[in-house]
Fold ABC transporter.
Amino acid sequence: MADVRLLAEEPDQRHVLRRAWPHLRRHRAAMGAAVTVNLLATLALTLVPVVIGRAVDELLDNDRTGLLTSAAVVFGLVIARTLLLRWSELLLVRAGEKVVHDLRDLVVERLGGTPLRFLEAHRGGDLLQRATVEIAELAAFVRGQLPDLISLAGYVVFSTIVLLTSSWQLFTLLLVVFAPPMWLLTRIVRRAAERSYPAEAAARATLTSTFSESLQAREQLQIDGATGTWLSRLGGDAGHYYRKARSAQGAATWIDGTWIVQGIASAALLIAGGIMAANGMISVGVVVTFMLASRDLFSSVDDLTLVVGDLLETRVGLARLLDLLDATAAPAAVSAANVSGTNVGAANVSGTNVSAANVSRTNVGPTNVSGTNVSGTNVSEANGLAAEGVTYSYRAGEHVLHGISVHFGPGEHAGIVGETGSGKTTLAKLLCGLYLPDSGTVRLGGADLSALDAADLRKRLVLIPQQVHMIAGSLADNLALTPGRKTRADFANAADALGLTAWIDSLPDGFDTDLGRRGERFSAGERQLVGLVRAAMTDPEVLILDEATADLDPGTAHRIEEALARLRAGRTVLVIAHRPATIDRLPRVIRLHAGRITTEEPPCP
Ligand SMILES: Nc1ncnc2c1ncn2[C@@H]1O[C@H](COP(=O)(O)OP(=O)(O)OP(=O)(O)O)[C@@H](O)[C@H]1O
């Protein structure tokens, strides 16, 4: 299991911003500009209580000109604030959306390039949740709360400065009455949120997984009459999510405590301010400024607590997303790890089981193949496809393949057979580089697959699985899923080369025939025909067909055999064979039993 890092459902939330920074770096100028404009808007609004306080003193002094000037300044500040705020929101949302857009692209790119094993090791719903819901939540936060968060943080700072410069005595009183209980409440909310939000996100991901699996398996569940069992499992997951969501709500109720703290602080300030004004220590205007600015501060802190609640929730999603990006990053490092692991394994294998040299001389007989079938000259192991001491496990410690060594010469046609679960499909995926071995090496033309360029590999080695996956759309849409830009003419040429033109013509709309949402219109065998046409367009060195286990109608079986026979020329073709008719025709057969090669039937003369 060397090449897979398993994702934790409840992520580590430490240093999330530091981890996210590399993804923000490209947009820092735009974000810096947005934050600056936002802070200017906030500053404009924070100055309003100061001007109102001055206006009150001017009113008490009968200074009409001063009063009118102050009123004009208040008006100007409010207008400036409105315009600046709108501008900053636009800038911030635009910059934030770019970040989210880049993250979304990166997730798609990383998931597309990640080893198959990584995808198989995780529940589809969990990956879906991280790649869609959590990015959507991040986008919603950026649009909805991020501008507020910056404004509110600005209010807290600027209001504090206004309060401190208005009256240090009242400010000291405010500090004593307001700050300690607020600090305590914030700690409580934060702790409760850190406990409950990740658990809520994990429970939601589990529910999504169970739900999406039930949709995928709906036919099987109905056949087995297991819908009830599945529903109760879904109900269990829904109940678990409900409990976690309630606990997260519980964490949020602590926020209401801030109202009580604010009430007490306001009353204390009013009494103290009144006494000081009566004694001539400060003007009435200063008391007014102080009360207005402290109200601003209270409501900012209040709103900030709510937004911070959202921030903590978004932080969990961001941490889960960053985990996904980290786990699917750096394929170079992954393959390097595997290459070294492979070398160790290969050394072990040659020491204990079957050495690479033995494989070519005794077990597999590539010399025979090359000597007789292909070129008439000896082909060493440097040519063709070779597994050397390959070991593989899906779960740590449970080997599915045990030191498999086998070689297929260029142009060879061979079969891999064995009972269900003996490891044929797993070996096929290793042979075409979809899995990396735990130990041992798979080589193509002498080169370790893990060292080859992934895109190049996909053109040189093609696997047609038992169940060829189809996307919603037409036959042409499905044929287009081939490396390179293929045209209608390419589809037609490939079908013609495989003798499938009559079959395509027999479809209602030829290449435009709609195959349904999941290609339901085609049987397993017909889907493999689609796979064969794609393979013909890719023109790989090695083609591996994992024969469909479902019963094939004679017409389709014949078309597959015919197409395969035409594809065989000039390339290595391996068939994971299930049907006796196929096995009988294979010139060379390798039999697997419980992850080991048991017998090797030599090539037919
Ligand atoms: N994605 C997976 N996760 C965990 N275990 C798996 C996975 N795929 C296969 N296995 C297990 O590995 C073993 C070998 O499976 P594999 O599909 O390679 O066998 P097979 O010979 O191709 O079987 P079949 O003829 O039924 O296709 C089986 O025990 C199977 O349960």
User: Anything to note?
Assistant: Residues 332-380 have pLDDT under 50 and may be disordered.
